[in-house]
Design goal:
46% helix; 263 residues; binds nicotinamide-adenine-dinucleotide; 7-stranded parallel β-sheet; Rossmann fold; alpha/beta
Length: 263
């Protein structure tokens, strides 16, 4: 069970990786999709493949957020599910982090996640409940296990941003419960996407390692014995988007093969 009731979904960072895998999964489940990304070409291609609507939007730009959030309301008169997923990273020793780099990562991963959530919640609050549900809408963020344990020591701004996403997910859950809007987030582990290719390059360069060495070290010892795929995350997003999770709010769900157990 997931989207068979035709829930409307907006996905940010949908052009590739976890966002694209989730778009494919929710399209299979019968969801009606608005796919958004700063990579306009990538998101157009995926929308054409899946029969969704593409919106080129930079989530750090207020006008882009307004246009993106308006799209499902113009088309369908409502938005049932937000998957607030776009993110960036940079690996650097803590002592080398500049203010510009701090701002770049925090602007996309935390500030934009908040203002996208806020713009969506303002609209969701005024819509009728979803068909067959007592809820008006569902907000789902992508945090990370990096938000729990300080992450890798080479990703200080990223880890801080993801701890912030867990925090604002819970603030939104509290603030919006009376409006019958839920807010939850997923915390993936080491997912084989373009983001990890970048991590592998930057981490490897700092240590003089060859290609895929950082990745091999990171995935060694994962309790479930294999690295994570974007589909592993997409399955949990499908659950959070579905009526089966309607009684959950304020939760941060680790989807990491057991890398981090407990808090
Ligand atoms: N890959 C991992 O191991 C991992 C682990 C934990 C959490 N995450 C999180 O999952 C999410 C998706 O990551 P991914 O691994 O699929 O990465 P990815 O780099 O493959 O995809 C990220 C997408 O976000 C888009 N994006 C970046 N900046 C944007 C902006 N300003 N406006 C709009 N779109 C923008 C990119 O164009 C890209 O399509 C991110 O929030 C990331 O932090 C990833």
């Amino acid at each position: 069970m997931a989207q068979r009731d035709g829930r409307t979904v907006l996905i940010t960072g949908a052009a590739r990786g976890i966002g694209a895998a989730t778009a494919r999964r929710l399209a299979r489940d019968g969801g009606r999709l608005v796919l958004s990304d700063v990579d306009g070409v990538g998101v157009e291609k995926l929308a054409a493949e899946l029969g969704g609507v593409a919106v080129r939007a930079d989530v750090t730009n207020a006008a882009d957020i307004a246009r993106m959030v308006d799209e499902p309301y113009q088309r369908w008169g409502r938005l049932d599910v937000l998957f607030n997923n776009a993110g960036v990273i940079r690996l650097q020793p803590l002592l080398d982090v500049t203010e510009a780099e701090w701002n770049r990562v925090l602007d996309v991963n935390l500030k934009a996640v908040f203002f996208v959530l806020q713009a969506v919640a303002r609209r969701m609050k005024t819509q009728s409940p979803m068909p067959g549900s007592e809820l008006r809408g569902k907000l789902i963020q992508t945090a990370s296990i990096a938000g729990y344990r300080g992450g890798n020591h080479l990703m200080t701004p990223y880890s801080a941003s993801k701890a912030g996403v867990i925090s604002l997910t819970r603030s939104a859950a509290q603030a919006l419960a009376a409006d019958r809007i839920t807010s939850n987030c997923v915390c993936p582990g080491a997912v084989d996407t373009a983001m990890w290719e970048q991590i592998d390059r930057e981490w490897g360069a700092l240590h003089g390692w060859g290609p895929r060495e950082a990745w091999k070290r990171r995935i060694a010892g994962i309790p479930l014995g294999r690295p994570e795929t974007p589909d592993d995350v997409a399955g949990v997003i499908a659950f959070l988007a579905s009526a089966d999770s309607d009684y959950m709010t304020g939760q941060a769900i680790k989807v990491d093969g057991g890398m981090v157990m407990g808090d």
